[in-house]
Amino acid sequence: MNQQIATLQQEALEQLSEAVELSELENLRVAYLGKKGSITALLKGMKDLSHEERKTFGAEVNELKELVTQEIEKKTAELKEAEIKKEIASMPLIDVTAPMNAESGSYHPITLVQRQCETIFKSMGFNVEDYSEVVTDYECFESLNIPKHHPARDMQDTYYLENGQLLKSQTSAAQNAILKKYGKELIENGRPIKAIFPGRCFRNEATDACHENTFFQMEGVMVDKDISISNLIFFMKTMLSEVFRKDIKVRLRPGFFPFVEPGFELDISCLICGGEGCPSCKHSGWLELCPCGMIHPNVLSEGGIDPEKYTGFAFGLGLTRLAMMKYGVKDIRDLNSGKLKALSQFTDDE
Ligand code: FA5
Q1: What pTM, to 2 d.p., does this model score?
Q2: What residue owns the CA closest to ligand 1's atom 27?
Q3: Which atom of ligand 1 approaches the CA of 291 most closely?
Q4: What is the DSSP letter of 256?
């Protein structure tokens, strides 16, 4: 290599390696590659060389030019990255996703009562199950002893999908699946079926102070040998006294549901008006809260359980109405309203 080119190369590489600022790199670029730069000057001076000299000298100068250009680019990238890291390190730690001046959130009253009921039933050995909101006609009706065109369907008109599935009108829609899921353990190991399954329900409903088109229920089932109405009443009483932590008036009256026999309506004295009568209880003083009964033999058979050997109870607690009663919400529609001022005043009293 030509001595002059070799010296220039060494000098350029040394200076580039020592540069610590982007501005220094720019100065070096101008000093070597700029219009009046040293490498540019070498290229310009080639015109005075012979044809032969020009060939080798030209190739060497161009290699040097290429090398210096690449080194400047490499070093620029390095310094830029170091600069970004330095800037990030100097930034105050802030969470840009955090809402500005937001107050801390609170659980919805329905979530609060649901969790409370789950805790109560879990302490009594019940499993908590989740179930889908979109179900089949078989799950919601047929498996529950409600064949097509049965008048009991009129009470539960709901929303149908184009594929024939529907938004479940009652949490009972999970009964058949629960019986099938836990039936094997009952039959083979004698372990009772004890499960609750809370969920959102939908009905094509004319809404008023105690009816919504979207509301929550919590179903419960227990199946074993010799289960009777006494067991059902015990669990209902325990649940209500734990939820309300005070004496409340309850009444049990006959009720018809094709999937239980006998069936009952469990009503509580309206806690909004103290039983006097108000819009929340349709002026009756009583609120239908938790229909229940002994599971119909046809439903047990459909779930793979022999009704000759086993009996069981089921209940369908109206969780939304329970939240109304527990928190003194006069109109059920307020619970779905999204009015934060109204909804955030309730707290878990556990
Ligand atoms: C049923 O849905 C039955 N599946 C309950 C059942 C389960 C009976 C197991 C026997 C054995 P019903 O339609 O009455 O029953 O609804 C049950 C409860 O859900 C009512 O008592 C009420 O508390 C609540 N509920 C029903 N419809 C609405 C509504 N539109 N808005 C708010 N709560 C409702």
Answers
A1: 0.72
A2: 211
A3: 8
A4: -
